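Task 17 of the worksheet. Students: predict the tertiary structure of the chain below and write it out as structure tokens. Keep your answer in the requested format; marks are given for formatting as well as content.
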Amino acid sequence: MENVSSGTLAALCGLGIGAVVGAAALVSNFCALGAVADILFAKDWRRMRAWMLAAGVALLGTQGLDAAGLIHIEALLALPVLWLPAVIGGICFGFGMSLAGGCVNRALVRLGAGSLKSLATVLAVGIAAAVTAVGVLAPVNAALARWGSLDLLIAPQAVRWIVTAVVAGGLIGFCLKDAWFRASRDQLAAGFIIGAMIPAAWLASEGTEALNFVAPLGDFLMAITLQRAAPIFGMAAVLGVPLGAFIAAAVTRNLALETFTNRADLGRHLAGAVLMGFGGTLTLGCTFGQGLSGMSTLSLTAVIAVAAILFGCLWGIRYFEAEGVWAGLKLTLKRGV
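Model answer:
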């Protein structure tokens, strides 16, 4: 009976936290890919500041919960730094989200608003994640983790708090000093709300599950097809995001059916989804799983993964500009941001 009630509580918490993220992301158009594109083509940093604000709030909240003894992240910090999977997986994920028009969270949000394109994307991400985790690509995943890992000592909590104060304070200060961003109420609110959901997820899962979308999608598909047990909180959060987005879209009258425009559009989305499922599994997370959740623990793997995702995202955007993979890479290395 105790197991049933704890499972129900985990499901409700995951569903609620996911719904809040989905609603906030839809109303504010919260999107990592969109944030990068805004900077490149419009010199508009507001969506990037929203993401950075969320990262700062998530870091401050997570470290605060750990210091208060409400969660314990030492076990996470004791894990090896998976630098090679983070680099390869991050680049694949970033390039993939450029092809698919957004990361996995963005696809879940758009699914809630009525996008059939995003339904196909989400399913393809889940299949690719499952294949990489336990299928034919599992040996590749294991080999990269074995060859590209590094053991580090855990920094004392006092040192972590100094780093937290500097990084979180810097991120939040950088965001709030901009008057244009402060005037953008949707972006400002999304940064605080989505950022707060990261420590809320750690607390609800008792420090065992982050707010992540790639692995839970693979787990969800394996649970319904192979009847395998899967973490309840993560799967509930995945379901919660489109639910929250649907409610927000209905209230704001933004529900709209979206389909693929042609075969090339379908191919790009599916290719991007496969890259996200593969890359997100290698690097153990996405823009949320490693970007916001991982960085909230001060994980070095997460820092490497975010840098790689950013590079992959830039490469993907330049790919469309240069109309070629290698031409896009050259343009990325030449221009950067």
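Marker's comment: The CA atoms of residues 280 and 325 lie 20 Å apart. DSSP finds 17 helices and no strands in the chain.
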